[in-house]
Amino acid sequence: MASSAQQHHHHLPTPYAITAAPPPTPSAQSNHSSDAATSDALSHLLRRLPPTLSLSLPTRHRSSAATTTTPPIICLSDPTPSLHSASTQLGFFQLTRHPISAHLHLAAESVAFSLFSLPHHQKQLLFPTDCWPLGYDSAENDDDDVSAAGESFCLDPSCSTESADGSGLDLGSLRELGREMEKLGLVVMEKLALAIGFDNPARGNPSRVCSQMWISDGKNNPGRIYPYVVGLHYQARFQKYSLLSDSGWVNVSGQVEVDSVLVTLGDVAQVWSNGKLKKVRGRPMPSVEANNNSNSNCITISLLITLPLESTVAPLVPGLAINGTEEEQEDKEGSDSTKKPLEKRLFNSFSFEDYAWRVYHERILLKDPLVRYRV
């Protein structure tokens, strides 16, 4: 299973405990691959600095001119043109007639509420961050008051944590929900690969990808950003969400089918497709309009299909031109009638580990972090 690989890939040796964000790495203004490589090398160096050398993180800003849209409704049994249109024009869609039961999600949501009700010190104890990015995260202020700050838990789908297992917490429903969402996410990945025309690394080898469950308190805060291929967000009730797409902030209408799954396509999927797919940066969050009551609280549970840290991200479309040059491709027999112009490569290859570390700690939503890797 992909989840079993998650535990292995996140135990990376570092000389210091990763408990605080390192200084944000400078944003590259050049599109050349050499500049991107230099920036990634600097990012790799900065993450080894002691946690005491930290700088304040930039504040997130959301556009007040967000558009509102109702995501297209897709069924996995639908013809591929409907999936192709939704993924190349928007980067998100609503998935119906899926195998995840509403009862399972409600049970998992109840467990999630119990996690947030734990004392702050116990959250840190039960869900440590020594297997980054897994663990408990909160945006603490100077008074260590997290009541008004965003909180989140990042778990692997098996919810494997020795501390939590010995605390009496029953994470069974979260564990089952994670497994079911992971299965569904892998199916969506394969459908996308077939509809768009790129190679699916997980085809026949699920260990090439891994999964993470992100549980957030939903206080109008997108939380940490982490790169992913596809994200699945269960819709248990009529709720309007905000997400940041390639075209800017979008309010996703709450008038959708209850118990459907909002699917978002991530930055890794966009690179794999060589730019054909639109993407969503980060995870959807309850919109400001839908959460005007400051005392209200909405738990969001998302599953991200992502990559092991040692992975390299590159376009996976067959027949790409080398070094961005236009060439022609012949079949094995060399027939002129089958010559086909190669597709221009739009992204350079890059290290997933350095990219994930940078976007996770910088938390800069409005600037596309993929710009520096464009050819």
Automatic annotation (TrEMBL):
Biased composition (Polar residues): 27-40
The keyword Iron belongs to this UniProt entry's keyword annotation: yes
Ranges for domain Non-haem dioxygenase N-terminal: 82-142
The keyword Iron is assigned to this record: yes
Protein keywords: Iron, Metal-binding
Ranges for region Disordered: 1-40, 53-73
Alphabetized Gene3D superfamilies for the sequence: B-lactam Antibiotic, Isopenicillin N Synthase, Chain
Alphabetized InterPro entries for the sequence: DIOX_N, IPNS-like_sf
SUPFAM superfamilies documented for this protein: Clavaminate synthase-like (SSF51197)
The organism's place on the tree of life at top rank: Eukaryota
Matches recorded under Pfam families: DIOX_N (PF14226)
Signal peptide: none
Protein's recorded name: Non-haem dioxygenase N-terminal domain-containing protein
Biological source species: Rehmannia glutinosa (Chinese foxglove)
Upper lineage: Eukaryota, Viridiplantae, Streptophyta, Embryophyta, Tracheophyta
